[in-house]
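Entry:
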Amino acid sequence: MLKLEPKLDIPAVTALLRRAFPDADHAAMPQVTDLSPGRLHMVSPYRSGLLRPGGVISGPTLMGLADHAAYAITLAHIGPQLMAVTSHLTMSFLRGAQPGDIHAEAELLRLGRRLAVCDVRLWSESPERLAAQANVTYAIPG
């Protein structure tokens, strides 16, 4: 089992993400609500602009949240290295995400010197009704 300890707490991760995305609408940005060794929970507030035809949350929105959660958990565990970048993202859409706040539960599967591999599960109704699951790898600058 992976032994991890976050280097940053929730307020530090939040401040770092705001620094990384200074032009973003911070009220609409996903918020880290829980952080523990190797795990992070994030919630993206619902707004009608996230919907696609058919009344479900769009795939690009879910992919963006998965990437955002993977970035946040990586930074929480490596510290303020803003140049960590996505090197791989695979997404499986499991069911339509109903309108509502979107939750992302990220888990670090591996944290090495050069790569962080994360599993991210997304839902809007309940964690028992996953809307999507992603495997995200971040390249860590040397």
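The two ends are 25 Å apart (CA to CA).
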